Amino acid sequence: MDSQGQTTSLQRLQNVEKRIVKVLELAGGVMDELASPLGPRKDVVQNHCLEFMQLIKDIQVALRDEIKSACEYRPFEKCDYGSRIANEICYKKVELIMSQLDAMKQTIDDYHTAV
Fold first, then answer.
1. Contact 63, 16 (CB under 8 A)
2. Interval 17-44: pLDDT, tens
3. Which pTM value belongs to this model?
4. Fewer CB within 10 Å, N- or C-terminus of the chain?
5. Do residues 54 and 32 lie in contact, with contact meaning Cβ atoms separated by under 8 Å?
6. Containing domain of residue 11, as a range?
């Protein structure tokens, strides 16, 4: 996750997009080489094919990592909403109990003054 932490998901996907463009350029280069009137140069075709296959593998790995990362994404993981609401509920409960205790004290005081 260290390397992923350095860039955003959008930046990583943009890099994948650049690799896809490069793959298409390589495929076009091979097609041009095969259509050459002098015939294809074996070493050029082989180098393009090797680079093509490596880029395809890199693209697959990058996309797999992005899918895995998206599945693990928890947007509310660091949200404090739940604890804040629980705190507010507890506060309201304490207020209610205090008002009931005040009412009980008033009733006791009223009883003692009446006797």
1. yes
2. 999 999 999 999 999 999 999 989 999 9
3. 0.56
4. C
5. no
6. 1-73
